[in-house]
Here is the input.
Amino acid sequence: MDQIILQVLNGLDKGSAYALIALGLTLIFGTLGVVNFAHGALFMLGAFCAITFSRILSLSHVVIDETQKDFLGNPLKVDVPHIYDWFGESAGQAIINWSVPLAILFAIPVMIIIGVIMERGLIKHFYKRPHADQILVTFGLAIVLQEIVKYYFGANQIPNPAPEAFIGSFDFGAAIGLKAGTIIYPYWRIVYFCFAMLLIGSVFAFLQFTTFGMVVRAGMADRETVELLGINIDKRFTIMFGVAAAVAGLAGVMYTPINPPNYHMGMDFLVISFVVVVVGGMGSLPGAVAAGLLLGILESFASMRQVIEALPGINQVVIYLAAIVILLTRPRGLMGRKGVMED
Amino acid sequence: MAVEHLNGEGDGGMLQTFSSKALDGTGILGKKVEYVTGDTQTKPDAARASARSMIEKDGAIMVTGGSSSGVAVAVQALCQEAGIIFMAGLTHSNDTTGKDKKANGFRHFFNSYMTGAALAPVLADRYGSDRKAYHLTADYNWGYTTEEAVRNSTEALGWETVAAVKTPLSQTDFSSYVAPVLNSGADVLVLNHYGGNMVNSLTSAVEFGLRAAQANGKNFEIVVPLYSRLMAKGAGKNVAGIFGTTGWHWSLENTAGSRYAGTNAFVKSFGEKYGFPPSQAAHTCYCQTLLYADAVQRGGSFNPCSVIEALEGFEFDGMGNGPTLYRAEDHQCIKDVLVVRGKENPANDFDLLELVDVTPAEAVTFDPAIFGGELGSCNPGA
Here is the structure.
């Protein structure tokens, strides 16, 4: 029982990352009709926004400490962050300690700007081109973005820990009356799941309850009619591209304490996120979220030792097997619109 | 930097301490050394393509480097076919000088077997002989040989292996593999992972509270058989207190004495050039380049067969690892292995590991026949 609960928690947490990326992909496909293979790179850029923000907070001046020696026997150069000078050492440490959540404020405008530049500068020229062209150009863009990040940040992973308040684990077992220590779950992963749900809820609320969102939804359903009403739908869709970039970026920001980021992390998520979008139903926002969580849980269960022993290799293919089964029995995906992909 | 030193530039580094005095800073056999570089991308195909280009277009007569066993095995086979010498870089699988060994290939770095032999006694000493281990193993050649080596060595000392689970090489989030460990009956988690896999799996293990947990009435422990500084840097504070092995460490001569002469000379050269202390990968590739050059010089020829003859059974010192033998039977260097532990309070990004023990070469020596393979005959090339 405890193993099942543990893997459900794992799956929800893992699935929430898939869902966030897939949500952005679906937003872009649903509004602009573009298959954006650079979306994983946006997730990666978000993570590096967190790294950049942490480095900005840690910008230092050098103080020579004559009492200590470096590895060559020279007086030790100690980096003292400027923020210590401005706010005092303890306040400065606290700000640096909370750099990941604070990076959200930095990442939102940066990612929206990146998204808008990407859409206006490149992707808009491919709206009327076949999906194959869109895939090629966005995949190429993803590689360019990766290489730029690799050039500036190096190829190795960069640790970016969660605030100390969230380091450690919550004992679910004790909380629900099971034996203490049987279901332990890290605080930051719980924060990540809650953050993902909040972000997904905010995107849905934005689309559902604002005039802007209503126009966007109308544009997704019937672009020509909305344009005939004199509404500049292109401008709104460009903003939605920025919003989708910000959603992917924020997913990346909050993911940095879970896995230290490197330039390649976007590609690791990209393929799975596309499977999530297709399984959820192309263009279906609730479908993307549901499929993300479902496939996350399936992947977690397939990683259990007992399952691997019974079905060797299942952990590597379970997501794709599930996708095949779902698409064979329901070609439009879990929550796709009737008729889509069903001819 | 090795090339600079061979050509008489810089301070000479370990040429000053190397026991062989054949090299004099005038190149090799009077010829100035030149080099080209390529990116292996840690992928055997990319590495082979890059090495092939170096050999065919640039006329390379020796290839060194690489940072994975897959790459080493692939490039070693290519060099054998092409008739040039391969001086392997960072490769730890038993197979490189075991079943996949080649006459034209040589490894200075240690292997999985040596890790198991060095690490197990220290683990038994620190954690006791009544331990239950759970292995998470990267699903490729190096993972298998490392798991086998650590299992065999620890089981011989009384440990029990509760489970061994293979994890996909492409895995980034190890939470679903790590989460069940605490309820498995194990009290030690062995992470047979390297590079990004190790950074991510260790991060997950610490995140899930394994470092602070109790199991079977004991403190739960995590072990990382093979450490590198880049991995320790990537995992950050999570490495604190965790045991592993390494081939060399920049502080070795200062902490373990003059047996490891050469270390300080290399650290000085490297530190003044790059501003930070060298890693074990830099050390092994530097040594390999000097060893090749020395073999050419001593043999009096660039002919690979002459180089092989000069290297086989070659005993040397002053290269930072203490007295070392390039064994003729499998072209494996036999030398001391370091057992290290992640520092609790590192002073900087390079001060991440502390030396716990040095296992002498005799204790990690193995029969070259146990891993199979045939060296074959040397290929002198065109």
